[in-house]
Amino acid sequence: MMKHIVMFRRLPGLEHDIELEARLIQWMRDLPEDIDFVRDWKVSANELDRPICWDYLLEASFDDADAVQRYLPHPAHVALITELKTYFEWVAIDYTQDTDRQAA
Question: How many degrees, rounded to 5, is the angle at CA 31 between CA 73 and CA 93?
């Protein structure tokens, strides 16, 4: 299983646009409806106001790295990213989830 984690925050210097932000986040939450090979998908909002915190977290799962590579250029994902770029910056990490390993 490949995990795809992305953190989002409003671009520096942008005024907070509550309606635009809500529309973008809802679009992000609804994205798996258009991409049938997404396994798990969760979008969470930050709850504490600290300088180190980002505004939103996307946690997604795909079968493997090939599925992530198919997801990135998917037209539904590209359309969303085109709009997100106008309001958010982000960082991402993709990693293989080790399901056989037990937490210590």
Answer: 60
CATH number of this structure's domain 2-95 = 3.30.70.100
Cα 79 to Cα 76: distance, rounded to the nearest angstrom: 5
Instruction: Enter the pTM of the model.
Output: 0.89
Q: Rounded distance, CA 6 to CA 34, Å?
A: 19
Q: Are 70 and 58 in contact (CB under 8 A)?
A: no
pLDDT tens-digit series, residues 4-54: 999 999 999 999 999 999 999 999 999 999 999 999 999 999 999 999 999
Cβ-based neighbour number of residue 22 at 10 Å: 10
